[in-house]
Design goal:
CATH architecture: 2-Layer Sandwich
Number of domains: 1
Strand content: 15-25%
Distance between the termini: 76 Å
Number of helices: 9
Strand order of the largest sheet: 1-9-10-11-14-8-7-4
Helix content: 25-40%
Largest sheet: 8 strands, mixed
Shape: globular
């Protein structure tokens, strides 16, 4: 076409008018296509960043959503009909999930008295285990730039994103509420060259997690799927050849946390379509929740290989490291599993012995009903003078 155009402009040959029209049309279409492509280029680049470059070949053989690796323990037997957490009459005194719209919106909750103590007990129990295993505890920020979240492999825009974003017109930059401390922990290593003698690096954090999740499933009411919750997270950075074993190490730690609590659970190898963008392989742990008569996810662990490290510049001797993350304790889900597994006929929670030292030795949860009642707040209109 270039050779043809030169001849046309030089008028060295006579051209048929149809050919000239064809050439003009081709030029116009090409110009439009180039403009469209340039306009779409940033979107295409961002889409490319969100595509997981590879997954473990093992999971290609998984049929359905997951493969069960193993089941631990047995489903508890009751001589009464087990109830869901929300229906346990004595626990209802210290759990508030209804009529909170005037206080904090839907999918929110209050833990009162004993349940608040159990929340702190679970966090302390988990941290003791992790610190004993060489994890470094870090207190992380809950407000992060959207660029960091994107580089970790999570969307901050679009219909499917679960991220709360702050108003950039008001705050100046694009900031978001963190959905997991994984992102802040990864950000703490950004653009760092870590010496090999410090690897593998094992970090952990306790944080509030904010997620704009919605669900119309009846079993997910209450505190199963909420907009804000407390979670203990594990995060690791290691040499490329070590990430597979590190993911298994994280998974074993999760099991060592859950087994002493007397939970029946199963370990799942998740199918490719169930993986996050950054994950090369992901394991889920689901605990049996008798009141719901179904399994519910209480933990997950992902091997992200170098996906996050490349985007964050996490290296060792100019080699991109691999990152691994895992949930050590998602408080609301764990409380559901504990309460429904260890419930008594009178609607009380009998704590596992492992938690006794964390709640001052009280094996049977002492439920009291003398908490302040929550009543709807009536809005008042004030006249401006």
């Amino acid at each position: 076409m270039l050779h043809l155009s030169r001849k046309m402009y030089a008028k060295k040959v006579d051209f048929n008018i149809l050919l000239q029209n064809f050439y003009s049309s081709w030029q116009n279409n090409l110009s439009t296509s180039i403009k469209t492509f340039k306009k779409s280029m940033p979107t295409l680049v961002n889409e490319d960043k969100t595509i997981s470059k590879k997954t473990n070949p093992v999971i290609d053989q998984i049929q359905g959503d997951f493969k069960i690796i193993k089941c631990v323990g047995c489903k508890p037997a009751f001589d009464f009909k087990p109830l869901s957490l929300n229906m346990l009459k004595k626990i209802r005194y210290c759990l508030k999930v209804d009529n909170l719209t005037n206080y904090c919106g839907d999918r929110s909750y209050y833990f009162l008295g004993p349940l608040a103590k159990i929340e702190h007990a679970l966090v302390k129990y988990t941290l003791d285990k992790l610190i004993k295993n060489g994890f470094k505890l870090i207190s992380v920020p809950d407000i992060l730039p959207d660029e960091l979240i994107n580089r970790c492999g999570m969307d901050t825009v679009g219909e499917r994103n679960q991220v709360y974003s702050l108003d950039d017109n008001h705050y100046g930059n694009k900031w978001c509420l963190s959905g997991t401390s994984e992102m802040a922990l990864a950000g703490s290593l950004m653009n760092k060259n870590i010496s090999k003698d410090k690897l593998p690096l094992k970090l952990c954090a306790v944080s509030r997690c904010y997620r704009a999740e919605v669900s119309s499933i009846a079993e997910e009411k209450g505190i199963y799927r909420v907009h804000q919750f407390t979670k203990v997270e594990m995060f690791g950075a290691c040499l490329p050849e070590e990430s597979e074993n590190m993911a298994l190490y994280f998974r074993n730690l999760q099991e060592e946390l859950f087994q002493p609590l007397g939970l029946h659970y199963r370990v799942l190898d998740m199918a490719k379509h169930e993986l996050g963008t950054q994950a090369y392989r992901k394991y889920d742990i689901e605990a049996w929740m008798p009141g719901r008569n179904k399994y519910g996810e209480i933990s997950s662990c992902s091997d992200c290989t170098n996906y996050q490290a490349k985007r964050l510049g996490i290296r060792s001797d100019n080699i991109y490291l691999h990152t691994v993350n895992g949930t050590a304790c998602a408080v609301p889900r764990l409380i559901i599993a504990l309460a429904e597994t260890h419930q008594t006929a009178d609607g009380t929670l009998k704590l596992p012995e492992k938690l006794n030292s964390y709640v001052r030795g009280h094996n049977l949860l002492n439920i009291q009903s003398n908490f302040p009642k929550f009543t709807p707040v009536q809005a008042h209109r004030y006249k401006i003078i």
